[in-house]
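Entry, Tuesday afternoon. Goal for today is a structural model of the target with glutathione bound, before we commit to ordering more compound. Inputs were pasted exactly as handed over by J.K., no edits. I checked the ligand SMILES twice against the vendor sheet because last time a stereocentre got dropped in transcription.
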Amino acid sequence: MAALKLHDLELSGNCYKVRLFCSLLGLKVELVPVDFLAGVHKKSPLIEQNPFGEIPILEDGNFVLRDSQAILVYLARKHGGDAWLPTEPAAMAKIVSWLMVAENEIARGPNDARLHDKFGFKLDAAAAREKGTRILGLMEAHLAKNKWLALDRPTIADIACMPYVALSHEGGMSLEPYPSVRAWIGRIKALPGFITMPAP
Ligand SMILES: N[C@@H](CCC(=O)N[C@@H](CS)C(=O)NCC(=O)O)C(=O)O
C-alpha cells in the first residue's frame, strides 16, 4: 500500500497538480476520490483534517497537509532534493513568488472563470476573465524570454501554475494569443512521468 494518500477530485486542477507532481517524482500515491457534490469535504472526518473545507488533502502517515502549493513544497523537499525546490535563498524566493501567482492571479483569473462556466459557481465571470487576461499577458511576456517560470529548469513553480492556465479555455479564455505560454505547457507535457488530467 502507498504511504501517501490523496483526498482527490479528478476534475480539480489543484488535485491534479499534486497527482502530476507525484508522477514526476515517481511516487506511489493512493487516491481517495471525494464525493464533492455530496459535500464530503465539508463533513467529518475530512473537515477535521482540513477545517477550510477544501481538497486536496495529503496524508503521509500521521502527517496531514492541506493546500496544493504547500503539498508541492512538502513533496519537493522530502523527495526531490534540490531539483524542484532548492534552498538557495534567491532561487527559493523566485519559486515562491510564482506559487503566490498560482494562488492569487491564476486562482482568481482562469480558475474562477472555469468555476463559473463549467461548474456554475456564482462568480463574476467578466472580472475573472479580465484578471485572467492580465496574468496570461504577464506570463506570455515572461515566457517569451524564459523557458521555465522561476529557474532555468522546471520547478514546482511550473507545476503549481500550469493546470489552471492550461484549462483556460474551459473558462472561455483561448490560449491562441499566447504562443509562449502554449510552448511552456508543451515543455511540461514532455517531462518524463507527465500525466494528463482526465478528459471531462
Ligand atoms: N488553496 C487551496 C485551494 C483548494 C480549493 O479551492 N479546492 C477546491 C477544489 S479545486 C475546493 O475544495 N473547494 C471547496 C468548495 O468549493 O466547496 C489549494 O491550492 O489547494
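The chain is about 50% helix and 10% strand.
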